[in-house]
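dude i think i finally got it to work??
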Amino acid sequence: MPLFILTCLDNADVLDRRLATRPDHLAYVSSFGAAVRLAGPLLEGVDGTPKGSFFILDMKNEAAVTAFADGDPYLIAGVFGARSQHAFRQVIGTL
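look at this
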């Protein structure tokens, strides 16, 4: 299956909501198993607070990536605002 990069940026002033929703978000993302090749928060500075999330996904098409993003508890709770998704071809490095 092809790889996709999904980037989701947090809305302003949602850190408390993010922290409250985190267990549901992690359970949701984990439920996709090996389809989630890499995931983690985008940070303000090296040790800063989260400002979004980044995913490398191994899914059949862009519609599957959209469905994944639409079902994320962070989106449903209003944590995520802007997002982008792109097909990705791994050339250097390993996952």
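The beta strands are 3-10, 36-43, 50-58, 80-88.
im so relieved honestly
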